Amino acid sequence: MYPFGRGSKRLIPYLLLLIPLLLYVVFYAGPSVMTVIYSFTDMKNVPGTEVNFVGLDNYKSLLFSGNSSERWASIGRSLYFMFVVTILQNGIALLVAVVLNQRLKGDKAYRAIFFLPVVLGVAVVSLIWSLMFDPISGPVQQLYSVFGYKDTFFGSFTHAFNYIIFVQIWMYMGYSMLIFLAGLQSVPRDLYEAGHIDGTSRWQAFRSITFPLIAPSFTVNMLLSIIGAMQTFDIILATTDGNFNTRTMAYDVYKETFRGSLDMGLPAALSVLQFLVVLVFVVVAVKQMRQREVEY
User: Fold this and answer.
1) Residue 17 above 90 pLDDT?
2) Do the domain assignments include residue 30?
3) More confident residue, 9 or 5
């Protein structure tokens, strides 16, 4: 009844939990709370400077100041990035997972190949595609020239952001694929055999058997895609550095914090605003997906 003993020994599990709890408070909860507090101040990144409470001035400056149009454009671009990445990444990952779940010859090698971009890291992936999309001698440009088409890729004001979306999907699709594949492999084969006896087609089996049983995997992938897409700034930094209409909210937070002015209140407010946007979409997505799981 008392696996850790009696008396003071019963406190052992709580003491063991105290260490990760302290780490969580110091490195996650604490900075998060301080960010919210800083967003209502005029704090400067200069030691010894006076900090004053300014209320909602930072938020007003973000959304209604002279350069607020750039902020609204970044917000719109972030939402576009999130929707496109979430839909395409999960759609492609589900298709690949279904194909690999057919126990093809060499399927383990294919899994490793599709998951490899996740392991490579952002710097390597960005370098690879910067070379691939080289507007002068890149392989993609040479392929385009066969069809009489030319592009500047990451240097294009109209196409650069779409190429960043492609790189994002290419890099993280393997991660979503593994989650879908784990869900697919948990589906009992007996259900497919019973459906085959009843004369169901492959599409009917997928719609009525596969998809309802992998709904939790779909929910997890949707949430990870939404959060990951809204937090992406490293690919943008490594490919375009925010130029050519590719700035997002996450990139603006980075730029205002590390490469902008010494004002810490403004990037803190932008971080809080980004968190609220992510929170709204995550709550809505969880509610809708959980409702679907119950219906199934």
Assistant:
1) no
2) no
3) 9
Residue in the structure block whose two tokens are 């992510």: 278
Quote the domain boundaries for residue 139. 71-295
The domain total for the chain is 1
For 215, the token pair is 């709904």
Instruction: Please enumerate in sequence order all residues whose Cβ is within 8 A of that of 195, keeping only pairs 6 or more positions apart, or say none.
Output: 204, 205, 208, 209
How confident is the model over 56-114, as pLDDT tens digits? Answer: 888 888 888 767 788 888 889 999 999 999 999 999 999 999 888 887 787 788 888 88
Q: Is residue 104 part of a domain?
A: yes
User: What global pTM score does this model have?
Assistant: 0.86
Within a domain: residue 17?
A: no
45, part of any domain: no
- Cα dihedral sign for 176, 180, 181, 182? positive
Q: Is the CB of residue 251 less than 8 Å from the CB of residue 269?
A: no
Q: How high is the pLDDT of residue 1?
A: 46
CATH of the domain at 255: 1.10.3720.10
Helix axes 68-100, 107-120, angle to 10 degrees: 160
Q: Are 134 and 141 in contact (CB under 8 A)?
A: yes
As a whole number of angstroms, the distance between CA 81 and CA 165 comes to 7
d(CA 247, CA 274): 14
| The two three-digit tokens of residue 259, written as one number | 């490469």
Tokens of residue 42, six digits: 């005029």
Task: Tell me the torsion sign for CA atoms 29, 31, 33, 35.
Answer: negative
> In the block, which residue shows the tokens 């209604």?
64
Alpha-carbon distance values, 257 to 17, 35, 81, 206, 254 (Å): 33, 12, 22, 47, 5
